[in-house]
Amino acid sequence: MTRRKKTRKTGPLAPSKQPKDKRPSEPTTKGKKIGKGQRPGQRHLESQKNTLTHSKSDDEKDPRVGSRRKIELVMTPEQELQQLQNDERLQRLVERFEEGETLNADDQRYLDEKSERYETLISKLGYELDDDWDDEEY
To answer: Looking at the record, which segments are called Disordered (predicted)?
Structure first.
């Protein structure tokens, strides 16, 4: 069976079309086509319009950016003391220093800074530092 190509002719059973000159006239817009939807870039222009109409304040922010809430970066002395006591690098350096091992310049500087800060925090919090204290379990 051979294939028959589709045509645009209506055939004998379809209603006949009116000639072009007798059809009802439609309003034609020879300028810009009336389309659907919004113009390109409208999504970004809307947020710019809002910022222009309202005065800028701290409460208004770009929705694409995360939270701007201020975070306190300073620790309390108790937290800092706890952090120094849990510092593994400092503990290893103290053990090496007590065994009589010589430390390199970076390790010695780190040990000096942290031990000085530890003593400052102890005195600030009112704790007493015993000279003969050991790591005994109570």
So the answer is: 1-71
Per-residue burial over 65-94, b if 16 or more Cβ lie within 10 Å, else e, is eeeeeeeeeeeeeeebbeebeeeeebeebe
**Terminal C-alpha separation, the chain:** 101
Q: Which residue has the tokens 């400052």?
A: 120
Tokens of 102: 């010589």
For the chain (138 residues), the mean pLDDT of every run of 10, in chain order, is 81 78 66 73 74 58 73 87 94 94 94 94 85 51
Distance of CA 60 to the CA centre of its chain: 17
pTM: 0.44
Report whether 62 contacts 44 (CB < 8 A).
no
The answer to whether 80 touches 121, Cβ cutoff 8 Å, is yes
DSSP conformational letter for 22 = G
What distance in Å separates the CA atoms of residue 13 and residue 77, rounded to the nearest whole number? 96
